[in-house]
Structures are given as structure tokens and as C-alpha cells.
Amino acid sequence: MPRGHSIPPMKESKSAEAANEPSGYVIPQEAANLLAKIITDNLANLSRDAYGTDPLKAKKALEIMDELVAKGTIKWKRPDRETIIEGYSTPMELLMENLIAGDLTKAAKTADKWFPFKPEKKLKRTYTQREMLNTFFRDGFVDRYSGERLYNPGFLRLLNVLLPDQFPYDAHGHFEKCHEIYWDLMPSLDHQTPLARGGKDEKSNWITTSMRRNMAKGPWSLQDLGWRLHAPGSLKDWDGGSAIFVYLVELFIEKSKPNKYIMDWYRLTKVHPKLPKVYEGL
Q: In this structure, are residues 101 and 240 in contact, taking their beta carbons and an 8 Å threshold?
């Protein structure tokens, strides 16, 4: 090597690990605040719904936020236990913790917060038999909770009169004495929004459904049960056997007359403005 020339010092090359280190970029505080608010609000929403809480998701979100705070990326204060359900605790597990600790006062507060008792109000139903039939015709004799076809109540009871051995019926609804068609095919009037949940006893809240689904629904909303509302039927396609019912009552009038239930439905059905007149040609 020629004199007067020195070897320049070698530059140390950055390791792959060092090259991948963060550049020190910090999230703007305004964006960090927005991120913190979104996460906090979501955690609060999770905790408010005692039956929809996802503790694993809540715990993971908290861990992410804590990590960002530790790195100095954002400024954020973790909500306390009263604001969210922390870790893996669910409301019932939290109640268990209170009871195991022997703290009934705290257990009562936990119960009041997460499991408040809301007594149902006993409200009178004021609709008439005519209004029931109007609702059935309006909905095309379709179960609005399942989309299945239903039959005129009078027709189903007429089956019991004409064929009692094949279609037994019990006025008290005992399952062992009553044919299943009186649960599956019998229309009933339900309140789409239950009276116990603030629903009104008026035409806009009346809906056609089978006796079976009416009993199953009880005081619950469609959202509670995961049900959906089906479209009403068309009377051009289906009238619930109403026209045939009128014809059969007149055909077997001597057997029908003694049964007040059948005759009440017959009189209302025969004069109903939406009744198809096909029975006249039978």
C-alpha cells in the first residue's frame, strides 16, 4: 500500500434487527385520544351488556393500550373495574367473588347493577274477536314469526266436531288431550312489542302467529329470541280455509249449531269484507 494513505475505518453495518427498529414516530396526540376513546367506549359497551360481554376481547384491548402507554406512544388512563369488566371476570363471576368474600352488601350492588329485576306489568288485552279476525285477514293467515300458513280458528274447531276421534280438543289446552294442530295451525293475536316491554295494545302492534309460537315468545322481543318478522301473505293465494269453513258450517249446520265457538267465528267470517266468495260455487 502506498505511503501516506491510511485505511479508512470500516463502518459497522446495522443488523437486520436494528434496521427493523421503529423510527421513533409517535402517533399524534389527537389521533391517540380518538383511538383511546373508541377503545374505551367499546369496552364500556361490552361491560354494560351482561350477557354479551367478551372478556377475552376486553382484556386484549386493555393490554394493547397499556403497551402503547408504556412506550410513550399515547397518554391514556385505564378505566377502573367499575367502568369495565376487567380480565376474565363476567358479571356472574364478579357476583360470585363478592359472595365468596362474604360481602353481601357489595354482592347486592353488583346484582343491582348487572342483573336488575324488572317486574312485568300485568296489562289487560282489549281486542275483540272481530279485531282478531281482521288481523288474521290482514296478515293473510300467515304466521308472521315463521312464514307458515295458519287456518281459520273456526275451521280447526269444526274438525273436532266432525271428526272428534281424529282431532281431539281440550278447552283447557292439556297437551295429552289436545291434537297438535290446535297449537301448530291455530292463529292467535300477539303483541309484536310485548306489553311488558312497553308495547301498546293497538292494531299497529298486533301480529298473527300460531298458538305454539305465541306461547314460546312470551314476554320476549324478536331480538331477544333471534327471530325475524316475515311478510304477510296474500289472500289471493291463501285465506286460511275461511271460505271452505263457511261452506262446511252450512253443509253440516245441525252439527255446527250447538257449538257457540264455531258459530261465532262463522258469523264473523261470512260477513268479512275480505272473504273470498269461492265457497258460493262449491
A: no
What is the rounded CA–CA span in Å between residue 274 and residue 131? 13
Evaluate whether 68 touches 76 at the Cβ level (below 8 Å): yes
Kindly report the pTM of this predicted structure.
0.63
Cβ(220)–Cβ(194) below 8 Å:
yes
Say whether 65 sits in a helix, a strand or coil: helix
Cα–Cα distance measured from residue 151 to residue 140, given in angstroms and rounded to the nearest whole number = 10
> Residues with Cβ < 8 Å from 262, sequence gap 6 or more?
154, 157, 158, 161, 249, 256
Which bin fits 26, alpha (ψ -120 to 50), beta or left (φ > 0)?
beta
- Under 8 Å between Cβ of 79 and 40: yes
220 closest CA partner among 204, 189, 199:
199
**CA–CA separation, 206 and 194 (whole Å):** 10
Helix (H, G, I), strand (E, B) or coil at 254: helix
- Could you read off the pLDDT of 14-29 as tens digits, one per residue? 444 444 444 444 556 6
Of residues 126, 154, 124, 150, the one with CA closest to residue 136: 150
